[in-house]
Every structure is written in C-alpha cells, then in structure tokens.
Design a protein that fits this description.
13 strands; binds coenzyme A; four-stranded mixed sheet; 355 residues; Peroxisomal Thiolase, Chain A, domain 1; alpha/beta
C-alpha cells in the first residue's frame, strides 16, 4: 500500500424519476395535509418511479452512467460495485449484479457487494470503498445508493406517518485512488446500536416468523403455519407488509448522533467545525437537519438540503444531494465536505472528504 494514497470521488451523478407527487396529491389516499407534512418534515413533494418500467437497479444504472461519464471511464473499467438499498428489485440476488448486467460491465471478474445499512448505506459504502482502494485491491469502484420506496409503502391512514416522508431516486459515485496532496477521503466513522432495531423497520417478510427479538410488538406469530417463513396470509390479512417507525425516538436519537459523529470525524483529523465548507446530511427530515445545523452553529450556506423536493430517499439521499450540490458549483476542489447519516438499525456514520 502506498502510504499517501487516498480515495477520491472521481465522478458523481444522480437520477430522480419524472413523476412529482405533492403533499396535496397524497391527500387522495390518506388523511393528511400539506401543512402537517411541511411543518413536521419540511417536505413539499417527492418523486415516484414508474411502476413496471423502473426499478431500484435501473434507477441506479441511470445515476451510475452519469457518474462514469464524469469520471471519464467506461463501465468495462469498473472493478468493484457496491450497491446500497433497502428496497431491492429482488429478495435475492441483490441489486449489485443487476446493475452490473444493466450497465454492461463486461469485466466478469468484477465483484459486486450489496449493503443493507438503510439511511447510512452510502456513508458505509464510502468507508468500504476507501478501504479497498487504500489497500490497492481496486482502482475503479462504483458506489450506488438507490431506493424505490413507493412500491413498499402503506397508503392507508395507518401508514401515513411513514409514507409521507419517503421518495424514490438514485445517486452514484466512482471512487479512485489519488496521490494528490491532501485530496480524498480523510476519514470515515461508522456506528451501530441494535437495541431499537424494530423501531424503524420493515420486519416482514423475514425468517423471524413473528416470535423473537422483541418483534411481537410489531407482528403476529405465524408459528403454526408450516413453511410460513416469508410472505404469509396472516401478514397480508393484517397489513403487516409495510415499514413502521417510532418517529419521536428516531428524531430524538438522530439529533444527538448526527453532531456526535461529525465531531468524531473532525476530532480524528484535527479539524474544526469552522473548517467544513459544506455539510451534506442524510435527508431524513428538514427539522433534524436544522437541529444539527444549530447545534454545530453552521451558517445556512454551509448546509445543503433538498429534502423539500425529494423527501427522504434513504441510501440515495446523500449522493443525490452531493450530486446536486456539485452541479450547482457548491463543491469545489480543495473544499472540505462532510457527509453524515443516521437511520434504521440504528446505524450512523460520517465521512470527511477533501474534494
Ligand atoms: N398527516 C397528518 N397527521 C398525521 C400524519 C400525517 N401524515 N402522521 C401522523 N399524524 C398524526 C398522528 O396520528 C398523531 O395524531 P394524534 O395526536 O391524534 O394521535 C399526530 O399526527 C402526532 O403524531 P406524532 O407521531 O406524535 O407526530 P410527531 O410530531 O412525532 O411527528 C414525525 C411525526 C414522523 C414527522 C416525526 O416523529 C419525525 O420526523 N420523526 C423522525 C422521522 C425520520 O426522520 N425518519 C427517517 C429517519 S432516517
């Protein structure tokens, strides 16, 4: 390993589906209002993918093609794929190989890794890619975060607190080694705490069959149904195939963990909050980002938010925001960019990147 070798983001791109769904549009399906959604989350609209024509992997491929072009490489040159999503095309195999096929990555030796870290998936992906690049194992890693939430939400009143928050979209980056002085990923910090795993989760379908790890609070036991491991009639009859969220616990934990993990990264690199040129928080909820901004005392121009337009796109939110910020000229060579995420698991993390 070359001592001074670091990992740089060589190309970035994003894709959001054309269909815009406003808060008002959602009132057709559930008892909600534009005012409630804006006040609690800051969200004004979100995008929904086109059913039967788009998938998590196909959206990821659209974002990836842009990132590859901006990095000046072809799909054949990709030697490793990392795909982060909680809404994959299939239960298995993962989206990594589907992306490989869709892009025509002709290098059949290329590895493909799927990661399931939900909202912090992209930050975890940066960290994984960084280790592979620094060790010299790979030279062109394609990291994609993509979500198609619209296919898995509960559009009844029961699901409204979750459904109004989430949207579809994809973002991608190409990571490469750099020896340019000071450039690249300076550090990453990753954390998890499974104590509240079911508080922001979609536990069905799954192998738990409703009877362990505290899941009885969220599911009905199917233990008397032989072979009832995945989707069962009980799940369908009781509307148990949708995500659930204990919103206030998520909010309270997130506003502590975001600043903590950002400070940790700064501490590791001997930098200060004032050194950050742009913070791109996972777009969980505008109120959470505002709390984080306030607690770090960052001015408005140093925090990028686009949740107003896209809602929470989970693993895709950071690369979409980073790509939009880059396109707007807010990410320049030499800038210190801080990425931070918190979400289901709970898992959280941060990355400091000198662009
Ligand atoms: N429209 C209208 N009313 C709604 C609603 C909706 N979409 N969703 C819930 N409500 C109602 C509730 O039923 C409740 O009604 P009640 O008082 O009659 O019982 C009321 O609004 C308050 O619900 P509550 O859940 O206490 O609201 P809240 O202030 O906690 O806000 C969240 C809910 C989800 C917006 C908030 O908890 C939050 O933002 N949490 C973090 C979520 C997040 O960031 N998730 C992503 C993490 S990666």
């Amino acid at each position: 390993m070359t001592e001074c070798m670091r990992t740089k983001i060589a190309g970035i791109g994003h894709y959001v589906p054309e269909k815009v769904v406003s808060n008002h549009d959602l009132t057709q399906y559930m008892d909600t209002s534009d005012e409630w959604i804006r006040e609690r989350t800051g969200i004004e609209s979100r995008r929904y993918a086109e059913k039967h024509r788009e998938t998590t992997a196909s959206m990821g491929a659209k974002a990836a093609r842009i990132a590859l072009e901006r990095a000046g490489i072809t799909a054949e040159e990709v030697d490793f794929i990392i795909f982060a999503t909680l809404s994959p095309d299939y239960y298995f195999p993962g989206c990594g190989v589907l992306l490989q096929r869709e892009l025509g990555v002709t290098n059949k030796e290329a590895g493909a890794l799927d990661i399931r870290n939900q909202c912090s998936g992209f930050v975890y992906g940066i960290s994984i890619a960084d280790q592979f690049i620094k060790s010299g194992m790979y030279k062109n890693i394609l990291l994609v975060g993509s979500e198609m939430h619209s296919m898995g939400l509960d559009f009844s009143d029961e699901g409204r607190a979750v459904t109004v928050i989430f949207g579809d979209g994809a973002g991608a980056v190409v990571l490469q080694p750099t020896e340019q002085e000071g450039q690249g990923v300076l550090t990453t910090c990753l954390h998890s705490d499974g104590t509240h795993a079911e508080e922001l989760a979609m536990i069905n379908p799954g192998s738990h069959s409703g009877y362990h790890l505290g899941t009885e609070k969220f599911g009905y036991p199917d233990v008397d149904v032989p072979g009832g491991t995945f989707v069962t009639q009980t799940m369908v009859d009781n509307n148990l195939l949708a995500p659930n969220m204990t919103g206030q616990l998520v909010f309270k934990t997130a506003v502590v963990k975001f600043p903590e993990v950002i400070q940790e990264a700064l501490h590791k690199t001997g930098l200060q909050v004032s050194d950050i040129d742009l913070l791109i928080p996972h777009q969980a909820n505008l109120r959470i980002s505002q709390f984080v901004q306030k607690s770090l005392r960052l001015p408005d121009e140093k925090v990028f938010n686009n949740i107003q337009k896209y809602g929470n796109t989970t693993a895709a939110s950071i690369p979409i925001a980073l790509s939009e910020a880059w396109e707007a000229g807010l990410v320049k060579e030499g800038n210190l960019i801080c990425l931070a995420a918190f979400g289901s698991g709970f898992t959280w993390g941060s990355a400091l990147i000198r662009w």
